[in-house]
Amino acid sequence: MKNEITPGMASAAVFGGFAAIVLSLFWAAFCGSFALSTLWGWFVVPLFGLPALSMAYAYGVALVFRAAAGMRQAQKSKRKIGQMIAESFLLPPIFAGLLLLAGWIAKSFI
Q: Does pTM top 0.90 for this prediction?
């Protein structure tokens, strides 16, 4: 029986899904921290004379703002888990890239 799911396969799928979620969180944090630290260096450092923000501090600042904004409740989705995992890896660099593009355009007018 080729299509039979064994307990070992099910546990491997659960572990793989969990690992993908954890990796996507780190990936999103990396992309967001890079964008925040770059934008901080372009705009806040020259304007206010504050020190540059490393990616580790940028991540911490982002966590502070996320905590202040509050957590959103999970909504039911009709998307498949594979699609949600793919989106969690693709959307952070796209969003960070768009922010950096907008910042770069704004910086060119300074």
A: no
* Backbone angles phi and psi of 15, in degrees to 5: -60, -40
- Taking alpha carbons only, the member of 26, 31, 27 closest to residue 98 is 31
Least confident of 3-17, 18-32, 75-89: 3-17
Q: How far apart are CA 27 and CA 34, in angstroms?
A: 11
Could you report how far apart the first and last alpha carbons of the chain are, in Å?
Answer: 67
What tokens does 39 get?
Answer: 């934008």
CA 92/CA 27 separation, integer angstroms: 8
**C-alpha to C-alpha distance for 102 and 42, rounded to whole angstroms:** 12
Q: Are 43 and 103 a contacting pair, CB within 8 Å?
A: yes
**Environment class of 18 (CB within 10 Å of its CB; exposed 0-12, middle 13-18, buried 19+):** exposed
Give the rounded distance of the alpha carbon of 15 from its chain centre.
Answer: 21
- Residues 41, 58 contacting (CB under 8 angstroms): no
